[in-house]
């Protein structure tokens, strides 16, 4: 039997996960710009980044959204209304206690950070409280993660491949048959807001 605390976690939304790659900075800006600062959950982002140079993603996205945007740090507890970006050359994952951890484990889909480790680890911790989103990208990263989110009862939103700057990632996600919503980019933030208004 679940404890009262575990039941409470399962009766509320816990996190929004976002996967993006090529074209993703602009896509993230649009999505995050449509969300209010009072969002009751954290947002965890795996955007493929160039490991050879310092990233400016925090500064760029902060200009687009009222949410707090930062690079994720190992061991921190994710807070509502905050966007945690996986740093270059690190996978962002979640421990069983809900804290974040960063790892240099092998590349997934030729990428580090990659979406699949994030989606799989968060789904194990938060179950049906997860909303997983796959945006523009030119590979298949996120497809395995989408299957993990659905296997644990979560909700999946995918950018319509026909409207994505690069359709590889959203097309692979849709191809899993495990997607709840396929939406134009500008419709994803309103969909997340509506979902937050009722229990998962």
Automatic annotation (TrEMBL):
Residue span(s) of domain CheB-type methylesterase: 16-199
Catalyzed reactions per annotation: [protein]-L-glutamate 5-O-methyl ester + H2O = L-glutamyl-[protein] + methanol + H(+)
Record's protein name: protein-glutamate methylesterase
PANTHER family assigned to the protein according to its UniProt record, in alphabetical order: PROTEIN-GLUTAMATE METHYLESTERASE/PROTEIN-GLUTAMINE GLUTAMINASE, PROTEIN-GLUTAMATE METHYLESTERASE_PROTEIN-GLUTAMINE GLUTAMINASE
Keyword Hydrolase attributed: yes
Residues forming the catalytic site: 21, 48, 141
Database matches in InterPro entries: CheB_C, Sig_transdc_resp-reg_Me-estase
Keywords: Chemotaxis, Hydrolase
UniProt xrefs under Gene3D superfamilies: Methylesterase CheB, C-terminal domain (3.40.50.180)
Record EC number: 3.1.1.61
């Amino acid at each position: 039997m679940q404890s009262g605390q575990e039941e409470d976690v399962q009766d509320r939304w816990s996190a929004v996960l976002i996967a993006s790659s090529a074209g993703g900075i602009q896509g993230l800006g649009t999505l995050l710009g449509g969300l209010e600062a009072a969002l009751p959950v954290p947002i965890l982002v795996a955007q493929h980044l160039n490991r050879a140079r310092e990233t400016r993603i925090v500064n760029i996205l902060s200009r687009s959204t009222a949410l707090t945007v930062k690079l994720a740090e190992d061991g921190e507890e994710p807070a509502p209304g905050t966007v945690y970006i996986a740093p270059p050359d690190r996978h962002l994952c979640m421990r069983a206690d809900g804290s974040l951890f960063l790892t240099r484990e092998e590349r997934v889909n030729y990428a580090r950070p990659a979406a699949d480790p994030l989606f799989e680890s968060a789904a194990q911790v938060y179950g049906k409280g997860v909303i997983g989103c796959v945006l523009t990208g030119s590979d298949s990263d996120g497809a395995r993660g989408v299957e993990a989110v659905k296997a644990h009862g979560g909700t999946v939103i995918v950018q319509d491949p026909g409207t994505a700057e690069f359709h590889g990632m959203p097309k692979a996600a849709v191809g899993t048959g495990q997607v709840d919503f396929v939406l134009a980019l500008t419709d994803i933030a309103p969909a997340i807001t509506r979902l937050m208004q009722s229990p998962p």
